[in-house]
């Protein structure tokens, strides 16, 4: 004699493990309290933006140098390099401003991190501005030093 299997046992999902609250504040006049959950620190958006814009400033400053060198014999190197130098300069200035504001925001806010990101953004933006200045001046000097064809 065979037994027919019964219905499968019901599925119970595993219990959800909640993180313990950071603190519990009692509600005056009752037996209840308000649980304040803990939160993970978040990096500052200005600090991240400073790093990204600073890196972009360095990359565009290399484009300034490449265009200045490539077009110096044809006579268009200083013009093309100068156009990209304006972009790289604006990116560098924006990176410096975002880095300073990001460091200030991290210092003043309790749940924000990213002081190192803001510092790295400041450094990258400053290097990008320096490279832009050197490459722009080099492109102009090459355009005057090499006769056009």
From TrEMBL:
The protein's name: DUF4190 domain-containing protein
Keyword Membrane belongs to the record: yes
Residue ranges of the TM segments: 47-70, 76-101, 122-146
Taxonomy of the source species: Bacteria, Bacillati, Actinomycetota, Actinomycetes, Micromonosporales
Keywords: Membrane, Transmembrane, Transmembrane helix
Claim: Membrane is one of the keywords in the record: yes
């Amino acid at each position: 004699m065979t037994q027919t299997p019964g219905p499968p046992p019901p599925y119970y999902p595993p219990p959800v493990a909640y993180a313990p609250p950071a603190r519990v504040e009692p509600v005056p006049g009752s037996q209840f309290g308000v649980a304040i959950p803990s939160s993970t620190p978040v990096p500052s958006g200005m600090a991240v933006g400073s790093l990204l814009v600073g890196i972009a400033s360095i990359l565009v400053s290399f484009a300034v140098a490449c265009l200045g060198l490539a077009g110096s014999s044809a006579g268009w190197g200083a013009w093309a390099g100068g156009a990209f130098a304006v972009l790289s300069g604006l990116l560098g200035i924006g990176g410096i401003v975002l880095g300073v504001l990001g460091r200030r925001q991290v210092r003043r806010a309790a749940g924000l991190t990213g002081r190192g990101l803001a510092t790295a953004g400041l450094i990258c933006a400053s290097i990008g501005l320096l490279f832009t200045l050197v490459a722009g001046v080099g492109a102009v000097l090459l355009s005057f030093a090499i006769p056009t064809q």
